[in-house]
Amino acid sequence: MNILDKIVAHKQIEIAERSTMTPISVLEKSPYFGRQTYSLRTSLLHPERTGIIAEFKRRSPSKGDINTRADAATVTKGYADAGASGLSILTDEQFFGGSTADLMAGREANQIPILRKDFMVHDYQVFEAKAMGADVILLIAECLEADQLRSLAKTAKSLGLEVLMEIHSGDQLAKLCPEVDVVGVNNRNLKNFEVSVQTSIDLFDQIPAEFLKISESGINNPQTIQELKQVGFQGFLIGEYFMSDPQPQQRFAEFVQSLNSLPQVSF
């Protein structure tokens, strides 16, 4: 059993426990449940933003602890103030050290789109995302069947949430559905956690033109963003590079300064 299989198996146990403790009827009464969501798609295309989805991640199965003591509100506010187009906040506790509290702290501190970064396999998690204050959910094609992915995407849309579908190979594009707003190419192989930005470059032309496209993982210098922009990518999810610094928000601000000093690439 690879790490992705282990995570999904644990998710099923977790969902059963959480849905018993806090049923959907209770989630629907959350203060955030009725809020108007922000559009990640719109924010990624905003000319005064960077196109970067900056991630808040405390640990990972491949790297272990990354930054366990970081304050979610402080870091994400720093990201937003320095020009992040969106925030990605890990809520998986078992494998990534995340929590509902981290996402809610990020929501309280910011007025830009937030992606709930988790392994979504059940409608209950979509309702949770809405109740936490998320604007976008992640659907990982590698751990969902096509009909399951579309069902989850439809639930998200019914709640006013956008959908980021993540792929790792071209064959997963067969699972695309109209309810998807953004397609992300994860440069990290979730089975062995090896990373190569070439994955994004190789898959770009296979993604239908109507979908906004982002590259995820393995981006640690502004020049790589320029190269990916030249290919046609419009968004870039970066987390580990920032979070490995004691002051992630400061590293992000310095990264943006370097990015802005490079020749601008127009789409």
Description of the molecule:
With 267 residues, the chain is an alpha/beta fold. The protein has one domain (3-260): Aldolase class I (TIM Barrel), CATH 3.20.20. 39% of the residues lie in helices and 16% in strands. It contains eleven helices and ten strands. The strands form two sheets. The chain has an eight-stranded parallel β-barrel, surrounded by four helices. The model has no long low-confidence stretch (mean pLDDT 95).
Topology:
Elements: H1 3-21, H2 24-27, H3 40-44, E1 52-56, E2 59-60, E3 64-65, H4 72-81, E4 86-90, H5 100-109, E5 114-117, H6 123-132, E6 136-140, H7 146-158, E7 162-167, E8 182-186, H8 198-203, E9 212-216, H9 222-231, E10 235-238, H10 240-243, H11 248-260
Compact description:
This protein is of the alpha/beta class and 267 residues long. The protein is 39% helix and 16% strand. β4, α5 (100-109) and β5 (114-117) form a beta-alpha-beta unit.
